[in-house]
Amino acid sequence: MPKNQTQSSAKELLKSLESTKDGCIYVVRDRIRWAFYVKGGKLVYASHSLESFERLERHLRALSRELPNLDDKLRSQLRLMFDDPDPENAKYKVTSEILCIEYIAILWLVNEHHLPSNMASKLIARVIQEVIEAFLCLPNGEFKGIYYEHLLQDTYCSLSIDRILEVVEQRLKAWYDLGPTISSPYQCPYLVSQTSAAKRMSLETVHRLGRILRGFNFCQLGALLGKDPLAIARQLCPLVSDGSILLRDPLSPFDMLPRTYYLAPEEERENIEKLSETFTDETNAGDDISSISQVFTNQESKTWKIVCIDDSESMLSIISSYLGSEDFQVTLIQDSMKALMKINSIRPDLILLDIGMPSVDGYQLCTLIRKSSSLKDIPIVMVTGNKGIIDRARARIAGATDYLTKPFVQADLLKMMMRHLI
């Protein structure tokens, strides 16, 4: 592709990649940066700039069912190393903004023998599919692809663009057919009427359904349940239609992505003979409500013990209200001097730890917790208003598992719970 060749549709731009020399085609549309990496006329990676690391984490979580070593501890290590790496200490350095940081993380997983090459190929194929689904939803207009030299150190996946389009276009037709009831894979379903839902499933299943539908979008639910997000959307659609489930609009920044329902139907009704063997299509099996009932019935029912340590009473109150009381047993601690003794007696599942406290600050307390043989493996999330690389590095040295920046909303906190507990 010449450096500034312009196409009139997302599909035309993707089709043009087949004749592009090896490199990266970089597209900016509606403040979203899209990157498509091509080698030998085939797609080897794709990304967009909205929560790219969250996207990688979701797919790693789904893959952890096949590779248990991809657990929350390793995923947290990955985030601390690569989500905002210190340029002086990072093993892999980002030399250009078009070199996706999440791809560098995949390289590290492979090179450190956490991820076999064949599973890296499967992971990358799933990421490409999600990115292409969103890209094809963009309305027609000016698509200016800018070519850059190839920057990927290694590639593990090589996909035919024609086949990707076949697979994704069939999936988008299925998403379109769910509209206008469901119009985006990033919408968040909430159970609002247990009475209506109980007409379709047992009360126990309704209860478990309500526990997991608390701010996660369909893509996140897919990672949690080990299911295709499209299959989950299809199975929950009757409950949305009868008012048992309320759908909230995608949370920021996913609200910047186009809706699946606004695609023109004729663009989605191409004749497709078969799906690519690269992707697993679960969407045609078990679409009825009994299937989703089985999924939620199999979910573990547990009350998680959370300790929140912060000298601010208002912050403790906010965290407590965000977590609620049904799924989480929350212990609030204001005095950091007494925190270690209380933590020892509670043995929590996760600790939320403020950094800026008098007497014993969060770094010191985190270090003390990690020295205890009975507490050393508990996830510790440092909570702070500081966003700098040095603060993250200090948190990592002290033994923190993850990092939550103030101010945060309920969805941010629940996402942290999903990452380390659920």
Automatic annotation (TrEMBL):
Cleavable signal peptide: none
Any Pfam family hit: DUF4388
Keyword field contains Phosphoprotein: yes
Keyword Phosphoprotein: yes
UniProt keyword annotations, A-Z: Phosphoprotein
InterPro entries linked to this entry: Bact_response_regulator (IPR050595), CheY-like_superfamily (IPR011006), PatA-like_N (IPR025497), Sig_transdc_resp-reg_PatA (IPR024186), Sig_transdc_resp-reg_receiver (IPR001789)
Designated name of the protein: Response regulator
